[in-house]
Amino acid sequence: MNASIAIQVLPKVETDSEVCRIVDQVIAHIEQTGLSYYVGSFETTVEGEFEELMELIKECQYIAVKSGCPSVMSYVKISFKPEGGILTIDQKVSKHHR
């Protein structure tokens, strides 16, 4: 594993319930990839290989649009270490969970 991303998908729709419905579709797609992921209140973190994560970012945009929003904005953070050895989700957050 040589990368992790944090992605926040913001569908441009009218209601909060529509935002949640579309974001749920995006998260379901992330889950289906089999990659390790963590859903936070503002963004979802995913671990994997750089190329597959870049493809996932693209797919998340299309999933949101196919789920019914006319446009989508996304904020993405990328941690990339070509030789591998990035900090895992567990290393970053497990000590903070109650």
From TrEMBL:
Family, per entry: Belongs to the UPF0045 family.
GO CC terms of this entry: cytosol
Gene3D superfamilies in the record: 3.30.70.930
Official protein name in the record: Thiamine-binding protein domain-containing protein
Pfam family membership, one: Thiamine_BP
Top-rank taxon: Bacteria
Domain Thiamine-binding protein per the UniProt entry, residue ranges: 6-96
